[in-house]
Structures
1.
Amino acid sequence: MYPKKELAQLVISACNQFDIDTVVISPGSRNAPLTIGFTNHPRIKTMSIVDERCAAFYALGIAQQSKKPVAILCSSGSALLNYYPAIAEAFYSNIPLVVLSADRPKHLIDIGDGQTIRQENVYDNHVLFSANLIEDASKISFNIAELSKALNLAISKRGPVHINIPFDEPLYETVGELDAVIVNKLKLSFDEVALDQESSKEKIKEVKLCNIWKRATKKMILVGTNYPDNSLQMLLNLFQEDGSVIILTETTSNIASGKTINSIDQLIFPLLEEELEALSPEVLITFGGMIVSKKIKQFLRKQQPKHHWHIDALNSIDTFHCLSEYINETPVGFLTKLAALPFVESEYQQKYVLEKEKRAVKHDAYMKQAPFSDLKVFETVLRSIPDNSQLQLANSSIIRYTQLFDVNDSLKVFCNRGTSGIDGSTSTAIGAAVVEDNQTVFITGDLSFFYDSNALWNAYIPSNFRIIIINNSGGGIFRFIPGPKSTNALDYFETPHQLTAEPLSAMHQLSYSSVCNVLELKERMSDFYGDSKQPKILEVFTDKEVNEKVLKEYFNFLK
Ligand SMILES: Cc1ncc(C[n+]2csc(CCOP(=O)(O)OP(=O)(O)O)c2C)c(N)n1
């Protein structure tokens, strides 16, 4: 059964043509023609999620892992505005999300019809393209061109696109098959367009850059959010043999630790101004997505390197206000050229490695006697995660605490750092778990968890999915960042509460347990990851005042 509407048939066929095989649908009537068509299409898998904000983050999680575009479909009105947080995240994290919003035809907008808003171009600041289709048989070529442009961009430029689709009533008329004429017309026009394979816009001044690289004795490679990648790992291993190169990574860089500096804050925090100066690079290479560490941003914005080259096949960003070259290539492509150059004698790397070793000794000494607190919980929890799991992290102190530890190299780690929101981490983690063969473990703070609690209103959560909530009765981050505590309005930052996840777990039929000391935690971790009929939640209660004291003491101890 397919919708009778030609426009709906076009959209469905276009998605199929571009190999979109997953559509997450939120209920409504205006989108009925597409709901009917997608749910009946043999090559398209559909899922139903009521809350559009959760639906969009869930789809984002699927696309994050499958690296393929995922479509989300909703009704008209405020429904599509609830997609916006995930669209912004997709925009800044380079995740292909195809937003399909059903609309009323133009003549029914702003005349007092229900569930109607101005939908055209509504996400314009954060999408790669807004296609505004028209339901009119004479506009078929226009609609095909718009669809083609939108879908091409989502795939080639990796990001969100919006396709707004107005439907007049009737909405529920159906036919037995998709119209072969429409499908063929569409196929022919798409064949002509052919996938827009990103052509290198700018030829890099290779010789010049290689000469700078060969001469420099202080070179830093800083990696942001990045997918696990064996070829890249092998290249970075080569650079570790060059004394003039130091590699700085974050947990979300998914690079094995070795000689890299993988706890940037831990390393930088105790350093004095002049020590930092000695460690500042002459050449800085960056690649990957967002960087979490505020300390490295402060450091490199102050001690600006003479040369900053950012490598990215899609976008250029000038995080440290001193970008000198944008290298429009893949990191593996460009680094392969540099790796072929001779190593340069220098003590630069060694200086970093010595600092790293000092911190590691202090870290271990502190952790041995650290009382039960968020910091201690992270040590225990991170050690417990089974090899090869996918680890999804929420914002904000969750990712920051994790960065203080050596995380098992076999884990794949992800966090919504595009916009660093606390509004969709659980939904994203569930989406990511659905397409992950191994177990997915999600660690979240309490505010983030309760914020996105509708994420659990989801019929597809795999039974091996695990949620660990660190419940410190509020936004713990606000006790650490400078500012909130100096005001008389801390409650408005931290937002203290007494909620627990137990009633929610019962409502959504998840297995629940809680702990409030280290012995219980260790004991619970021992059978937490094994097979189970239901996904599990473990809620770890910690004391915010102890957390604050312990983390401050920890950083002072590192000095
Ligand atoms: C949608 C959104 N609203 C507000 C914020 C600002 N914010 C950042 S962290 C945070 C508190 C998070 O608290 P919790 O999830 O309990 O984690 P904790 O800091 O305790 O680890 C808030 C409100 C945000 N990042 N995203």
2.
Amino acid sequence: MEKDCIFCNIVAGKTETEFLYQDDMLVVFRDINPHAPVHLLIVPKKHIRSINDLTEADQPILSEMLMVAKDMAAEHGIAQSGYRLFINVERGGGQVIFHLHLHLIGGFR
Ligand SMILES: [Zn+2]
């Protein structure tokens, strides 16, 4: 855990953030600045700065992120209407919080 990382603090339960899901590898919560009717963040508990910092050992985390994204889409009723999954990498890719996270957005009409 990185002391000054907001997502590490959220993962550690040090904020009021409501978890929509959590398991031993990751947590899911709502983006505080939503860009869509459904905008969730799927966040590994382990502090990984960005996709650039992944190692072979992180493969189970990545796979879990996608599986949970699929389940969250179904749970929020957007599996059939469709959704988008994306990961921003570093500043040039639009990353704002430097703790790896997967965006799940959908619910547009
Ligand atoms: Zn972190």
3.
Amino acid sequence: MIKLNTNENPYPPSPRVVEALGRAVDASIRLYPDPDASALRARAAAVYGIPADHILAGNGSDELIALVLRATVDPGDRVAFPVPTYSLYATLVAAQGGAAVTPAYPDDFSLPAGLAEARARVTFLCNPNSPSGTLTPLAQVEALARAVAGVLVVDEAYVDFGRGSALSLVGRLDNVLVLRTFSKSFSLAGLRIGLAFGHPELLAGLRTVKDSYNLDRLALTAAEAALDDLATMQANVARIRETRTRLARGLCALGFRVLPSEANFVLARRPGVDLAPVAHALAERDILVRHFATPRLRDALRITVGTDAEIDTLLGALEAIAS
Ligand SMILES: Cc1ncc(COP(=O)(O)O)c(C=O)c1O
């Protein structure tokens, strides 16, 4: 099976993570984990240059998204985000009884107007965006943070594959919350680790609705070890970026339109053509890619950047399917 549908990393995590996990599986697992993730937060503070009291650890960034909404949104409150984007925002806003305000991205995925005007409690910006892979420049993110009425959550799940993070806004703007995950660049999707960076008062609100032991001992151990070996993560990211260029070129040669991607996936489009049959034909060959059955995206496939060999197989299969 070649799995290119959920943006996991095709390469293993740092060997240091695996070693640390091996050492951590001992009698200490009878004990609860640290509810404050103090060691991880101290490590993250050193790596990212943000004070530890501006950092909160989550059970994946998905948990952090849920905590933001649970802490800030009452039924009927507005939550804004440009679409199409990460589908969990809409799901969790609905679960919370919030009212989603969703201005549409134009075809080039530049930031649409109407976000700040929504006067929302929370505004989400997925940056780089999924499924487009496109990046909103930092100056525009800062202008948006200054313009919105409530909290601006910048979801940077894919930022290590691109350039330009909003972390520099944390500490300068009290309403900015930046989310990071260990699931993508650090190859640790199976362990569920995310970090939120923001003003301590904002984080205090999130803590009131968080389970105390939200990260288990092994996840904490793995995250600390991962931050001790940035070189492995960066080497994997460099390989993925090179393969991303090959993938985009290969798709263009097959007649797809591909948006410039700053993430570990690309959005490939055949304008006006429903690509569900192509996704099915690939699945029959044990290649999974993501097709969204929505009016805006049915002519597109989101394809995770796998290994070079996986991408060669995918491109060969697409060529065979088209002919
Ligand atoms: C934009 C975005 N945010 C957050 C997540 C979830 O990350 P995590 O595995 O840390 O919950 C994903 C996962 O695909 C994502 O695409």
4.
Amino acid sequence: MQPYDVAIVGAGNAALCAALAARETGARVVVLESAPEELSGGNTRFTAGAMRVVYDGVGDLARLMPDLTEEEKQRTDFGSYPADAFFEDMGRVTQYRTDPELAETLVGRSLDTLLWMRSKGVRFAPIYGRQAFKVDGRFKFWGGLTVEAWGGGPGLVEALTRACRDSGIDILYDCRAEKLVREQQAITAVIARHRGRMLRIEAGAVVLAAGGFQANPEWRTRYLGPGWDLAKVRGTRFNQGDGLRMALQIGAASRGNWSGCHAVGWERNAPEFGDLDVGDGFQKHSYPFGIMLNARGRRFVDEGADFRNFTYAKYGRVILEQPGQFAWQIFDRKVAHLLRDEYRIRQVTRVTADTLEALVAKLDDVDAQAALDEIRSYNAAVDVSKPFDPNVKDGRGTPGLAVPKSNWANRIDEPPFEAYAVTCGITFTFGGLSIDREARVLDASGKPIPGLFAAGEMVGGLFYFNYPGGTGLTAGAVFGRIAGTSAATVAAAA
Ligand SMILES: Cc1cc2nc3c(=O)[nH]c(=O)nc-3n(C[C@H](O)[C@H](O)[C@H](O)COP(=O)(O)OP(=O)(O)OC[C@H]3O[C@@H](n4cnc5c(N)ncnc54)[C@H](O)[C@@H]3O)c2cc1C
């Protein structure tokens, strides 16, 4: 096999951005991907393509989305998302543990990186369906998440893959990297199994972008703790922790929240791994407008603690901790129009009834009487003196309840009533490798391992406990691009 300047492990968003950035410098680039082509694209392909990005009003958005029409601009309040707000969101949701240097790089390079992706053929659109509600005839965006890749995750993977092919990057599918070769100090090759045959791929530098370990139940139990073997995997089955293992084996330092992960409320009867035909449709993210009950018929979390973007990634864990690892989300007619489109898919565990008594009787595996009592006490506590407004944290709460609901509390009293069964779906793991601003992988003494770079889910130190929605793809793109450029520079100098 011919020698390459840069070998990239993985073919998700981070890897493909790394490949394109390396290729821009003239480097010869190869991408190694475990999955066969029809299942490739990693977790990236399962996403809706939502990307958190700094923007200063509609002017910046128009640079990203030149297709925005005057009519759209008129009927939409896009607001702005300043760097300070993104940085503060990263700090707040991670309990101020996020590495400030990495977070600053992510935030500071977000817009520039999305514009660069656009120059490579990725198109963007406003996320009207999920991140904006119509008030007084105008859409208003909330929570800092405004942009999605055209065609969602599949569209993003397709656009990046096409750009790679057009620029002469080789992509080997069904090619699982197994080992890094470190000679003297530097990384010089990757050993991989390509369609059953062992390959040694010589390269001046290697970028690891092979995702986390969420699809590996043994590692989940080992690092996240007991019970995590029982979670469903929302995305690809191929993110088994290979990249992390290979790097740790040659002396890379681990970093970040190895006992933490992104996990959400997910259809209780979903398959063990993600289903590309359903994508992210198994998620059930409208809980801020209803309540959640466990097997004992009890509420167990503040469903309205914050905007959905800032709670959904940690509530999967809370559901996993409930008896039987499930919960029911309950809504009434008043809020049914606010439910996201994922509530209307065919593969959903849903019950409806015209009375609360009939509804609780239909909730599988739940103490019906306790559930009825709980809904009644909740209803009695709702502070109806404050107006309900889904676009702002409206402070409409439930004073006096042991488990409060801090915003968007509505009585559940208008039939028909609807309930949806959810369990925990794990998205990706937070623990990763220690990298610096140039995406160089560091060893335990804090020194870069020559020729080794990492990006995407494999980066440790960015996310702890929680995560602001839409940051994974942006982080993958920002650090992938940096890793690709750094790797090509090192390879050229070697
Ligand atoms: C259902 C769902 C919805 C999501 N929605 C969003 C969203 O809207 N916005 C957002 O920002 N984030 C979202 N995320 C998170 C997002 O998917 C990830 O943060 C991001 O895609 C990670 O990109 P990545 O390139 O690091 O990993 P991936 O895209 O997972 O790519 C890793 C690749 O490495 C390959 N690989 C693994 N091991 C090897 C090996 N040994 N050799 C070769 N290749 C290997 C895998 O097959 C995979 O293709 C969502 C995730 C899921 C599952």
